[in-house]
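Run folding on both entries below.
>entry_1
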Amino acid sequence: MRDLTRPLRECLAAMDDKHNLQEVLRRYPADRDELIALLRLSIDLGGLEAPAADPAFRLRARNRMLAAAAQRRQARRWNPLAALPRPVVRLAYAGALAAALLIGGLTAASASDNSLPGDPLYGVKLGVERARLATTFDSAARARLELQFADVRLAEAQRLFAAGRVQEGVRGMAEYDTAVAQFNRSIAGSTLDTRAVDELSRVLDERAARADASLKELAGSLAAGGDTEAAAAVARAQSHVEQAWSGSKRDLQSRGSASQPGHQTKPAAGQP
């Protein structure tokens, strides 16, 4: 197994100093995939909060510690780690700790998938999303991720409204609006090839139609239930989102037309 300590340290330093991470990865093409996986793990673990200790668990741990201390006093047993050099012992402990953190991090990330704003694991959910975006360097793949996360924000808002958490649902609609606007900005600032333009155009048409139907149904349901303010907030978000969708569609259509063979720019009025 190759020693990735130095390249991983360079990658982490580039992220901390906000340098070009992709340039660092280019220096290690053979280890690129493994380095990206390690960076994702580092970001995921960094966003985890320390879990609250269970009182019963603390009592059991205390009793076990006292029992182990008494047993050591009664009979000193040979410890195989004591015969190893100190650096090796430290490495063994570090490996065990890393494995425990990895298992705990993956469990928390999986459990956070269905969390909503205000839930204990919602911060983990957002941290995982940020980690995926931070380690996605292809412009088209990043745009698809942003579109996917915008769908997640809309689904969260719908669930909040359905659970009677109306004010949180209104804030969720604002988050959805912001996510769509971010996707629109990414499209405008990205370099995309013809295949990516065609794929994103198709996906965008599907998502826009589905979101428009969902928002109209949600606004109608809230208005019928007498919650006119929430219905108005959903309608405003729908108007903003439609404008963002339209801008993204125009951008993609113009790129698709420009990339077609034989495309010529139309002369301005009055020119031959």
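>entry_2
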Amino acid sequence: MKSHPEHFNLYYDLAILLTNNGQTKEAIKIYNKIEKQIGVSSQVSINKERIFLYEGDLEAAIKELKKLIKKFPKESKYYGMLADLYLSQKDYKKARKIYDKLLEIDNNNGLVHLSLSEFYRAQNKDEKAIEELKIAFKNKDLDINLKLNIFASFLSVSDENKMEKEFLNLLEILLETHSENARINTVYAEFLIREKKEEEAIKYFKKALKLKKDEFMVWRELLFLENRLEKYKMLITDCEEAITYFPNQAVLYLLKGFAESRLNKNEASIKSFENGVSVLIDEDELSIQFYTYMGDV
């Protein structure tokens, strides 16, 4: 290795191969040789940390992360990895200490506040966890899909009745921060339906579809909601637009025809039903509905 430093990548690949073959002790030896020559590096230490965790050697894993922190004291991700490791072991005191250090280094990092939210949630301190989520959700640089996944995770394990207002507040923050994101408008509309605010939900489904027209399931949710609220004129108009994007979806013609029949537009209704039947593909239940409605008209 000394005589051929350009071959470090070959040694690195060898260490990975040894790891994949279950020869972790040999892999660690190779990583140590690399480290001796080039010094502490992220690539080597993180791979060693993963091996130590796999083997259950927590102290060795912690040592690797501390080495990285010492080498790169301004790199927040290594503090986060160490704090998360302490958190996984329910060592809340040490985890809190690292999170505090993280805040000193990068208070505006949304990921830090997401980690703090998880820190509080692990201790069943939901109110403090929510406060950290609010800070994270206001961060425009944090990925919206990550935020929504975290929100869904929190929703699934929390007392929904107790935290209902807080959940709505979190979604309102997301909507304010990412108003032009179709998915957040859809999620907000769905939450409004759960809150029995169906008229308001229509507005946000339509906003989502304005931003992203080719989401059939969002069209479906909107149209069934309009049907449930007996907004038949609106339903006909929106079905017509949806059909331009999804001309082979029979259910769109079914809803349009039903709305037309409720408004006594019988000829148009029959035509819609016939168009729907023409695109049916082995949908026996839907077929029955078409012919039943046609019979009623």
